[in-house]
Amino acid sequence: MSLVDYATARQRGATPRTQRSWQIQPGLWLAWAVMLLALLAAFAPGLLTHYHPTQGLPGAQRLAPQAAYWLGTDQLGRDLFTRIVYGASQSLATAFAAVAMGLIGGTTLGVLAGAVGGRTENTLMRLVDVLLSIPSLLLSLSVLILLGFGTVHAALAVGIASIANFARLARGEVVRVRRSEYVEAAYGSGGSFWSVLWRHILPNSLTAVIAFAALQFGQAILALSTLSFLGYGTPPPTPEWGLLIAEGRNYLATAWWLTTFPGIVVVAVVLAANRISQQIAGGGA
Prior knowledge:
The protein has 285 residues and is mostly helical. It is built from ten helices and no strands.
């Protein structure tokens, strides 16, 4: 979902929410189940598997999915299910760091531009337009080339690439709230700029930004997996979902499960994050 699609969902949810709009649909149940399972794998992987994520088993190279190894083993005899489970902590943690950076940096710029206005707004939004004109993957790769490869630098690169989206959304929400009657009344009753901003503008404009962060969480997982697949993210042998796909691409003809199952996990978690974000934004069923 793009920023334009997200804004459309927000407009559909701008009317007062009824009880029907917050009914939990089967798709939303499934999305929450996928997300909770991913969080369980990230925080307590030992509850889901007893194998070691980086140590191979002698004589167990590239075994097909079976009772002992649910998703098969890789070229070094490592249990694929175990590596996917332990890769959840790496993928989710870096995605969370990237979203947090984009949320803090972008929201700060957007709120400053929307609240101050004038030349400050024009200058900041022209900078945002420049960032939005660069494809996010290209911008992330450019940042990685400058900083160097690695997990932390990949999170920084994805976070920097998402700042512009957060800034534009935050600025739009602040401008919308700033023009409302109750904000005008707050200024008319003698409220200072900072008191009105803190008590009225921010609480009523950040809900959309926080909901957008849930959407960006899924996008960050996809972007980080892409960088790892290209060899710019988490280095081996650390398990990471994009890296698992990259390691198995040379064995597509003989061990299809090495790329199929990690790919399914990435798609499932990204779709779950998108679905949850739509519900938070009031996007309907």
